[in-house]
Amino acid sequence: MATMITDECINCGACEPECPNTAIYQGGVEYDGLDGAKHAALSNDFFYIVPEKCTECVGFFDHEACAAVCPVDCCVPDPNIPESEEVLMTRARQLHPEQAFPEDYPSRFKAGAAAPAASAAPAAAAAPAAPVAAAPAGGATFVQSPLDALADTVPALESWDVPLTCFRCRGEFEVPFQFIKPGTVLHCPHCAGSFVPNTILYRDVAKRVTKFYDSFTAGLDAIRSRHQAEIERFEDQLRQSLQKLKDDVKEASADAALAGAPQKNRGFFG
Ligand code: SF4
Ligand code: SF4
């Protein structure tokens, strides 16, 4: 089967650079077809995969690279496009005629390969983490990163204001999520009429709000880990550059004819 992206996609972009076949495109962006022409986007709302370019990573990895990085497990096998390993490997060779694939090429179909892409069901919802940055300890100077600032833009789950419409006067008002519990008596600020959330309303609101927070947190975590990888790469380069600088300076100072340094005895006539 080709791999597909479901509408659970949160458009984090983590999968696109992982694809060895450039089969993944951002929603609304035209794709490059195998005929060399541009084609209309297959989705305008979410990242999408061009089936004719997807090999389920056969030839490159023993798992689907997009599924491995997707924070919400929405890269899944497309049940409408079943394809054998042979078909997928033939496609990999056609897509990369310049590449010499080994006999024992990696494939998710092979014994011992990593587990195939997740099923169409989304990842189990984890307990929502309050996306609020922790306060610095000991009054230390704290420079907030752009990612923490982004997290701050979303209020804590319990204090998120749920928009409600009064069934009596149709007036609109907002109540913190923590009060949308079955049996809690709320009062409309417009007509003062009572409003008691029932279990159905509570479950519906809780499901939507929790799903949003899970997606937001997962997206933020994905960006953070990419960020972290970049920082580590940069630190590595920095370490190497510093070592080279040290070596160069050491070499230059060893070669320099410094005043007071012992000179080679050149004999009486120099
Ligand atoms: S399964 Fe592999 S080849 Fe297919 S879209 Fe995902 S990363 Fe690309
Ligand atoms: S990694 Fe998953 S959530 Fe992110 S853009 Fe790709 S399919 Fe969408």
Describe this structure in words.
The strands form 5 sheets. This protein has a two-stranded antiparallel sheet with strand order 1-6. It has 4 helices and 10 strands, in the order E-E-E-E-E-H-E-H-H-E-E-E-E-H. With 270 residues, the protein is α+β, with helices and mostly antiparallel strands. About 10% of the residues have low confidence. The protein folds into 2 domains: 93 residues, 2-Layer Sandwich (Alpha-Beta Plaits); 111 residues, no CATH class. Helix content is 30%, strand content 10%. The site of one iron/sulfur cluster (SF4) has 14 residues, from loops.
Total count of domains: 2
In DSSP terms (H or I, runs of 4 or more residues), the helix count works out at 4
- Fraction in helix: 25-40%
Which overall shape is indicated by the principal axes computed on the Cα atoms? Answer: flat
Q: Which percent band covers the strand fraction?
A: 5-15%
In spatial order, strands of the major sheet run 1-6
What structural class do helix, strand and pairing data support?
alpha+beta
